Amino acid sequence: MVELIDKLKTEARLLHRKAAEGDSAALARIRKVHEDPKLDDAELKPAVKRRHCLGAIARDLGFDGWAHAVQVIKGNNSRDFGKMLYPHGCSAHSNIWSASYAEARKIHDDVGGYLLAYRHHYFIVDADYIRTLGLDPEDSDWQAIGYDWVKPKSTEARERLYSKVVQVQFDR
């Protein structure tokens, strides 16, 4: 987990550097999490702090903010998983949704697939969905977590999968 958190911090440092150089795309990302989003680029540039960059990185990944991202990635927040596993473009897939983990787990046991989480809800997907996420459905880490993102058999394997999802999103 530390490795992924450090990677996200590195991304925030790079974003901070771009913002300090006046990169308009970087400033636009930061503006979404800044206390005063009405500042123009010239006013925002000197007001950018590292916390804004951490918040922007977390938000881009589907979390409410940096603290939320760290809690979820470390496995310390099982009430709200954020939106990372349901990015734009995945709504075209047919999924089975549930508001209850117990119900989702039972369905998963009956039909198989991959049990994922979105905010406070759970959903079961097929291999095509996993490919749309940019991941390999045959990756051994899926078996290591028991195909259950919410309550994985191996938290280390889930962290590796988190890292892969993050990398895919940064590459897009």
Describe the structure.
There is one protein chain. By secondary structure, the chain is mostly helical. It has two domains: 2-74, no CATH class; 96-153, no CATH class. It contains nine helices and three strands. The chain has a three-stranded antiparallel β-sheet with strand order 1-3-2. A hairpin with a 2-residue loop joins strand 2 and strand 3 (121-125). Helix 1 (2-20) packs across helix 2. The longest helix is centred in the N-terminal third of the chain and has 19 residues, at 2-20. The mean pLDDT is 94.
Task: Give short descriptive properties of this protein.
172 residues, mainly alpha, elongated
List the helices and strands and how they pair.
Elements: H1 2-20, H2 24-31, H3 41-44, H4 50-60, H5 66-74, E1 96-98, H6 101-111, E2 114-118, E3 121-125, H7 127-132, H8 140-144, H9 155-171
Antiparallel strand pairs: 1-3, 2-3
Helix pairs in contact: 1-2, 1-4, 4-5
Number of domains: 2
Tell me the overall shape.
elongated
| Helix/sheet category | mainly alpha
**Order of strands side by side in the largest beta sheet?**
1-3-2
N-C termini distance = 22 Å
| Helix percentage range | 40-55%
The average pLDDT score comes to 94
Number of helices: 9
> Topology as H/E string?
HHHHHEHEEHHH
| Low-confidence sequence ranges | none
Beta-strand percentage?
5-15%
Radius of gyration: 17 Å
Q: Note the main sheet.
A: 3 strands, antiparallel
Number of strands: 3
Compact summary:
The protein is mainly alpha-helical.
